[in-house]
Design goal:
351 residues, mainly beta, 4-stranded antiparallel beta sheet, 30 strands
Length: 351
């Protein structure tokens, strides 16, 4: 998810964010001396330890999504403010390359079986396919207005882009980049994921406050799941083995657990202000929630429901997270690390 002038989407005229900033200013002015406005209301120590920090190229502008090829230990990071994708070898702690000229790149998704990296060049309303081995542009496709997150449907070899302000999904052939169709969601959209358990695409529809369940074969909305208690659903992750979806509500700092088959919300948890990117470690049954406020929340999943185990301010700008299912390490690109330059923070679970 991107920002206006450093908090959210690089748009200068978003009424929802303008109201949020006004409220935040009032809250800061009312804090007692010495209080930290970035600390969550009910903070507790993160169950994480620092492993290392990798200096990243470019300026201290905003990063967005990140995607990991665990087998090759290659992490691809969208550096939105620099309009480039940064590739990092997380085992050797080195930057492999940067891929430039991806206008306002938001989403990035590596698909290892295809040796492809897909990115949304939001400034040009394009999806760009890159060769994972060389970083070369292979092909590209036009999308709807303001493409953001991405998902891959392996059964049909299709890439889906969420066109946030357009309120649509663009469905693109993963090999040829031919546009196969689009889905109108009836309101501004958040993230999209493919659910292998149900063979459905799930989309957080911000403009309607629900979760759309789409048949990828017909591109029709099969059903909608209401999200009571959720203001502006955006972030989305899945635990297919237990039939659960996790939805981040960035308007009221809430994380919902949803029973996909049952079509109902099963639990609700507070998280840091402005929850954005989610990463689920299936083997560890652990969800990471990175927020615009720099707060990271860690929750453990049991029977499809989430239970908080820690939530605290990690770093300014730490609203992006990726997790390695092989090592259980998590990664957070931030605009300014210990040396004052952009950096990738690496954390491991406490023993």
């Amino acid at each position: 998810m991107g920002t206006t002038s450093s908090i959210r989407r690089q748009r200068v005229s978003r009424p929802r964010r303008a109201r949020a900033v006004t409220v935040a200013v009032v809250a800061v002015l009312s804090l007692p001396a010495g209080a930290c406005s970035q600390e969550p209301a009910h903070s507790s120590p993160l169950p994480l330890r620092s492993v290392g920090e990798v200096a990243l190229p470019g300026d201290g502008s905003r990063f967005d999504y990140a995607s990991l090829d665990s087998a090759r230990a290659l992490l691809f990071i969208a550096h939105l403010g620099a309009s480039q994708v940064v590739e990092v070898d997380v085992h050797n702690n080195t930057v492999v390359r940067t891929v430039p000229n991806l206008s306002q790149v938001h989403g990035v998704l590596v698909v290892p079986e295809r040796h492809r990296v897909y990115a949304t060049a939001t400034g040009d309303n394009r999806m760009v396919a890159l060769d994972e081995d060389t970083g070369a542009v292979v092909n590209q496709a036009q999308t709807g207005q303001y493409p953001d997150g991405l998902a891959y449907d392996p059964k049909r070899g299709a890439v889906w882009t969420t066109n946030e302000t357009g309120g649509t999904e663009t469905v693109i052939d993963a090999g040829t980049a031919a546009v196969r169709g689009s889905v109108d969601l009836g309101g501004e959209v958040g993230n999209v994921v493919y659910d292998p358990a149900t063979d459905r695409m799930l989309v957080a529809v911000q403009g309607r406050g629900d979760l759309a369940v789409i048949d990828p074969a017909t591109l029709a909305v099969a059903t909608r799941i209401g999200l009571p208690g959720c203001d502006h659903p955006h972030g989305l992750a899945l635990a297919p083995a237990v039939g659960a979806a996790f939805v981040a509500c960035d308007g009221n700092a809430t994380l919902l657990s949803v029973d996909v088959a049952g079509g109902r919300v099963t639990s609700s948890n507070p998280v840091g202000d402005g929850p954005d990117v989610l990463a689920y470690d299936a083997d560890a049954h652990r969800l990471y929630v990175a927020a615009e406020s720099g707060v990271v929340s860690v929750l453990d999943e049991r029977d499809g429901k989430l239970h908080g185990v820690g939530s605290d301010h990690l770093a300014d700008g730490a609203h992006v997270v990726a997790v390695d299912p092989a090592t259980h390490h998590s990664y957070y690109p931030i605009p300014s690390g210990s040396g004052g330059h952009p950096a990738l923070l690496e954390r491991a679970p406490n023993p």
